[in-house]
C-alpha cells in the first residue's frame, strides 16, 4: 500500500473527500516537441486555440521549428520555452567534441547521451549547443519562458553545469523540475526518490531557479487521481502536466480526448489553468 511521502516530494496520499479544498491549484499543460513536424505543430496549436494547452517547448533543430515560432506569435496567452535537445536531428553548433553522441550522418544519436562518459570537453560542447538552441528561439522573436529537455536530458547529473551555464547566459529562472506524481504502477524506488530530491534541491538552489511544485505526464496524473492518491490539503500549489500531441488521429487519441474533457472540473480540488509565466 502506498504511503504518504510528501517529504520526498512524491505525492502518494489518501483517498480524497468530495469537498474541494483551497487554495486554488494552478496547472500548466505543457506540450513538448513543438517544431518536430507540421502535424505536431498543428496538434499543439489546436490545443492552445481551444484553451486546453497553455504552454509549449520548442525543438529549435526540428524540421518545423521555423513554422512553429512564426505561428506562436498568434498565442500571446501561452508561454513558450526551449526543449533542450541532444537526441534528435542535427546540432545547431556542430563540434568535433560532440562526436561521441552523434550518428555517422552528424545527427544526434537517440540514446548515446545516456551511455557516454561526460568529459569536460563534451559538457562544454553541449553547453554551447544548448546556448545555440536557446539563441535561435530568442532570435526568432520568442520571449522564452522556461527550459526543459527532450527525453529529459536536462536532468542528467553530468550536464548540470551546462544547464546552469545556459540559464545564466540568458537569464532564464524557470526550469522543468522532476517527475513526482505517479500512479501505483510506476511508483519509484526509494533510491530514485532520493536522487530526485537532491537534483531538485540543486536546481532550485544553485543560481536560484523556479519550478512547479509537481510534475507528471498528463494521463498518468489522471490515473493517479482516479486511484485516489491525493489527500485533502496535500495538493501541490503548482503542477506541470506534460503532453505530447503527435498529430496522428489528434481528435481520437486518448490524450487528446482527455484534454478536451472537463477533467479540470472533476478534480477534487479548486483548480485553474495557467502558463509558465505564472510561476
Any overview of this molecule?
The protein is α/β, with parallel strands linked by helices. The protein has one domain (6-278): TIM Barrel, CATH 3.20.20.370. 31% of the residues lie in helices and 14% in strands. The chain is built from eight helices and seven strands. The protein has helices at 38-49, 65-72, 120-139, 160-170, 190-205, 218-226, 254-259, 263-266; strands spanning 25-34, 55-58, 79-84, 144-149, 214-217, 238-243, 271-273. Strands 1, 2, 3, 4, 5, 6 and 7 form a seven-stranded parallel beta sheet that branches. Strand 3 (79-84), helix 3 and strand 4 (144-149) form a beta-alpha-beta unit. Helix 3 (120-139) runs parallel beside helix 4. The model is unreliable at 1-9 and 11-21 (pLDDT under 50).
Helix segment tally: 8
Q: For the record, what is the CATH homologous superfamily label?
A: Glycoside hydrolase/deacetylase
Strand-and-helix sequence, N→C? EHEHEHEHHEHEHHE
- The percent of residues in helical segments reads 25-40%
The rounded Rg comes to: 19 Å
CATH fold-level label: TIM Barrel
Q: What is the arithmetic mean of pLDDT?
A: 90
| SS-derived structural category | alpha/beta
Could you give the distance between the termini? 33 Å
* Model regions low in confidence, pLDDT < 50 over at least 5 residues: 1-9, 11-21
Main sheet makeup: 7 strands, parallel
Structural domain tally: 1
Number of strands: 7
